[in-house]
Amino acid sequence: MSLRLQNVEKVYPDFRLELDFEVRQGELLILLGPSGCGKTTTLRLIAGFIDPDSGLLSMDGRRVDTLPPHRRRIGIVFQDYALFPHLNVRDNIAFGLRMQGWSRGEARKRIGELLRLVSLEGYDVRRVTRLSGGEQQRVALARALAPEPRLLLLDEPLSALDAKLRKSLRTEIRRIQRELGVTTLYVTHDQEEALVLGDRVAVMREGHIEQIGTPEQVYNRPGSLFVGTFLGQANRVQGFLRERKGEMAVVETPVGILHARLPVEAGHAKTGQGEAGQTETSGAAGNHSEVTVFFRPEHCSTDGGRPGSGSRPNRISGRVIRREYLGSHRLIEVAAGSERFTLDLPEGQSPEIDGAIRFFVDPDRICLFPGEGS
Q1: CATH 2.40.50.140, applies to 225-370
Q2: Each residue of 38-75: pLDDT tens digit?
Q3: Which of 160, 183, 210 is nearest to 75 (CA)?
Q4: Which end of the chain has less neighbouring CB within 10 Å, N or C?
């Protein structure tokens, strides 16, 4: 089952939601964004709890925005799970089956299948109030899946759990989704969760989709400075586009001349209808314009004293002002004049505090965006 939102709008006095994207059959699409950007409102529109002011919402080509919620065959897991505290596990899972008229025998068989699927065999007569947070989350997922929905909506289902349990349960959610092949839209504001779980990630900002693509695409080739800074750590420095050399840009910055590969001019990033590695960042590439140079901490490397390293492009020199030990690697903060950069380096490759350091950035790893004054 595929889901399509076409020119969907919902207008409030202080907020406008504008949506145009697709969830492909059998995929898990992550809807990622900060609080207040419209993620939960999007789920409520799809579920039928609120009506759009305009636009078309269809499933497998059939319009569903005119149908009431109970006829859309959509399963929902809410942020607080919304379980019935006076019922046991079995009766919570059976609620939707009874509403849809399943026979007692069919419901019993389905409940048994789901308890095995979510690893809760033997829990059927337990009251949900006596379950842990992770167990309640599994019950909520089983209840949403019980009536065999065509679409599954998950609204920050792991946000109330501790970090270790979140990592464990996100693996289970991914396993279950792949096993069933159910088309899934998953809302979160957790960047790591989005990158680990999603077949694709749609980054949302102020009521619209800023970029949509695979986790690798939105992380390594962000379509806007907002996407780049929202997803993971980032370095940025203001510069001035000096010239183009074929596919490369030469940028003058406070830390020296930097070379970067010019972005692709395709314009698909914000619509979500093409491959999101094709971005609209090319607006930064006019000669003599201000640009923001953007690169990730892990895309930096030290020369390590290798012969010929002095001739490598994008060399930045500075001194170490902070170090964070993270086991297999370290985060290093470097002062280069008035600029500050963060490097993610393997253990053993960073000097001590106040030590001099010289690092390089691969031109292919740099993104260019319109400068703050553009």
Answers
A1: yes
A2: 999 999 999 999 999 999 999 999 999 999 999 999 99
A3: 183
A4: C
